[in-house]
């Protein structure tokens, strides 16, 4: 191919359309000369660095340092680094829910990658929704992309007890509700739950998604678990900048070639072995959907039955992500799983997974990365059930559930949305026993909106004070990857979309039959038909992003992505 017919590269890529390409390049360079760059400096391949630094995202406080390290790596390899901002989403600063903003961030990332003259991009993400949003955007834009996760916090320590966000935030808050600890103890823990910059340091959604990004080939091997404040993370960022220049020069691999049936199946296997977050199923479904694939929930369940939980981290186990990193990092886990993985998939380094594992040090700390015959939990990490209450699926973090509650049949107590829950859950007159099934609805993708992490319904205060630690809880919400309990989530279709959850009334009997993977509402069909006919049509917000969301968001089993963003079509 002659040079004239090749796709433009570097700063000649995606010139603003004035009807005169030469003038567009001349003007672009004039603006860069105004920054003090010489003509020689403008010749290299361009690597974009998507920065998600934000004062409203404390998890990403180290992003500016990572930008500088990536920039250094790009420059050392002869590339031209350009940092640019995108939306940044933090779990505690996203009303009404962070998932609502994930799709907006994915659109922002995709459209910036379509608009900017980048030959490759390094995406700095970390807090729960950010890495999924970035990979979704990168797959749709199909620009060579690498991810530098900001990395996990170090564990905290309070009077000899290691503490971590947010599993221990929830545990201690529940203990205070149950009056097992006093305000002084809670306040002391408050100072130590998050002792450094970085993402939550248990195997919650952030760490799970960083590890899955590595498994999918977007993070350099071993890079997902390095603590945020270790210098090793800066060196990894520098190496990522260098690798991005190689990708910019070669034009690949492209994200769509990384997200394949094999790599998604590998990611599900890794998710199960990590005992990872239930949220990962939504994000994996969305990432797969961008590549024109469908996450098969039956296969998720099947892989779960065959894959033991190997990594001993909270909330299922005992340790923190820094322990996994010191124990051999994700490649040590991948090596344990080698016979269950497709080792021919590509990695971020360019080598196959087989080649990466061949070169990775053999040492592993078996206390943290367990052998296959000595798993952390007896059962699988994540299970998928169906039944008359959830025709399109419901997710259970099996390994964090109570065995005695897995076969359970009892009457329901129904809460209609979060305001109703807040108003009544601690009411001393609530007629609730430990056997009741707590149902929360109106908190799905459309309902809340944005499917908030409200699925781990608090144990009613009077039961908590009596020592009840767990109950069967069902909702169309999500729950934090740091949470635990016999909590059935992501009921699809949700109640706001007319799913059977909308038909449940107080006192209806619900049967959880985990052995048969079923969740059923034991009410006869005639009665359900009468109730269905009485449902009110849902109102759609009149304008803006809320309207776009309400009209186009898909259900949890499809990843809550917008219907018009799925598949491989390129505008
Ligand atoms: Fe950011 Fe947990 S809140 S990772």
Task: Produce a short descriptive summary.
With about 575 residues, this protein is α/β, with parallel strands linked by helices. It has helices spanning about 20-35, 65-75, 100-115, 130-140, 165-175, 185-190, 205-215, 230-250, 255-260, 260-275, 280-290, 295-305, 320-325, 330-335, 355-360, 415-425, 460-465, 525-535, 545-550; strands at about 45-50, 80-85, 120-125, 145-150, 155-160, 160-165, 380-385, 390-395, 405-415, 435-440, 475, 485-490, 510-515, 520.
Question: What does this protein look like?
Answer:
The protein is an alpha/beta fold and 571 residues long. Helix content is 35%, strand content 13%. The protein has helices spanning 21-33, 63-76, 98-115, 130-141, 167-177, 183-190, 205-216, 231-250, 255-258, 261-274, 279-290, 297-306, 321-326, 329-336, 353-359, 417-424, 461-465, 525-533, 544-552, and strands at residues 46-51, 80-85, 120-125, 145-149, 156-158, 161-163, 382-387, 390-397, 407-416, 437-441, 473-475, 487-489, 509-513, 518-521. Strands 7-8-12-11-10-9-13-14 form an 8-stranded mixed β-sheet. A 4-stranded parallel β-sheet has the order 2-1-3-4, sandwiched between helices. Strand 5 and strand 6 form a beta hairpin. Helix 3 (98-115) packs parallel to helix 4 (130-141) and helix 4 runs parallel beside helix 11. The model has no long low-confidence stretch (mean pLDDT 95). FE2/S2 (inorganic) cluster is lined by residues 59, 90-91, 127-128, 199-200, 204, 206.
């Amino acid at each position: 191919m002659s040079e004239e017919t090749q796709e433009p590269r570097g700063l000649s890529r995606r010139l603003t359309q004035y009807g005169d390409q030469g003038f567009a390049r001349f003007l672009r360079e004039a603006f860069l000369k105004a920054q003090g760059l010489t003509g020689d400096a403008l010749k290299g391949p361009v690597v974009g660095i998507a920065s998600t630094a934000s004062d409203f995202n404390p998890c990403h406080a180290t992003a500016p340092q990572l930008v500088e390290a990536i920039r250094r790596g790009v420059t050392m390899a002869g590339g031209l680094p350009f940092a640019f901002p995108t939306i940044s989403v933090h779990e505690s600063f996203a009303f009404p829910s962070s998932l609502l903003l994930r799709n907006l961030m994915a659109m922002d990332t995709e459209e910036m990658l379509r608009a900017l003259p980048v030959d490759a991009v390094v995406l700095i993400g970390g807090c729960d929704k950010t890495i999924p949003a970035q990979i979704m955007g990168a797959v749709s834009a199909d620009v060579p992309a690498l991810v530098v996760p900001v990395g996990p916090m170090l564990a905290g320590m309070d009077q000899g007890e290691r503490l971590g966000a947010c599993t221990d935030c929830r545990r201690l808050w529940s203990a205070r509700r149950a009056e097992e600890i006093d305000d002084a103890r809670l306040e002391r823990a408050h100072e130590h739950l998050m002792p450094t910059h970085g993402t939550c340091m248990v195997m919650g959604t952030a760490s799970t998604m960083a590890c899955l990004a590595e498994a999918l080939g977007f993070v350099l091997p071993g890079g997902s678990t390095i603590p945020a404040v270790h210098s090793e993370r800066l060196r990894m960022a520098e190496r990522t900048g260098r690798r991005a220049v190689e990708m910019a020069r070669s034009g690949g691999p492209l994200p769509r070639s990384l997200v394949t049936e094999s790599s998604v199946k590998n990611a599900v296997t890794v998710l199960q072995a990590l005992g990872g977050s239930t949220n990962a199923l939504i994000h994996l479904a969305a990432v797969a959907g961008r590549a024109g694939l469908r996450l098969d929930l039956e296969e998720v369940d099947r892989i779960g039955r065959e894959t033991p939980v190997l990594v001993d981290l909270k909330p299922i186990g005992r340790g923190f992500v820094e322990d996994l990193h010191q124990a051999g990092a994700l490649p040590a886990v991948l090596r344990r799983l080698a016979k269950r993985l497709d080792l021919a998939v590509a990695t971020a380094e360019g080598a196959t997974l087989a080649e990466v594992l061949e070169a990775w040090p053999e040492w592993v700390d078996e206390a943290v990365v367990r052998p296959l015959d000595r798993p952390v939990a007896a059962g699988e990490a994540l299970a998928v059930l169906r039944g008359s209450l959830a025709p399109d699926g419901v997710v259970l973090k099996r390994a964090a559930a109570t065995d005695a509650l897995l076969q359970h049949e009892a009457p329901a107590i129904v809460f209609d949305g979060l305001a109703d829950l807040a108003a009544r859950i601690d009411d001393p007159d609530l007629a609730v026993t430990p056997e009741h099934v707590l149902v929360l609805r109106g908190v799905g993708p459309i309902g809340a909106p944005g499917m908030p992490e409200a699925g781990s319904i608090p144990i009613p205060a009077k039961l908590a004070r009596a020592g009840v630690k767990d109950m069967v809880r069902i909702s169309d919400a999500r729950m934090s990857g740091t949470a635990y309990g016999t909590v059935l989530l992501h009921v699809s279709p949700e109640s706001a979309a007319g799913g059977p959850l909308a038909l449940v009334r107080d006192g209806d009997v619900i049967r959880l039959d985990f052995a048969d993977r079923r969740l059923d509402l034991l009410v006869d069909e005639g009665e359900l038909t009468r109730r269905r006919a009485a449902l009110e049509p849902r109102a759609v917000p009149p304008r803006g992003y809320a309207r776009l969301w309400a009209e186009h968001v898909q259900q949890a089993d499809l990843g809550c992505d917008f219907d018009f963003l799925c598949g491989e079509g390129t505008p």
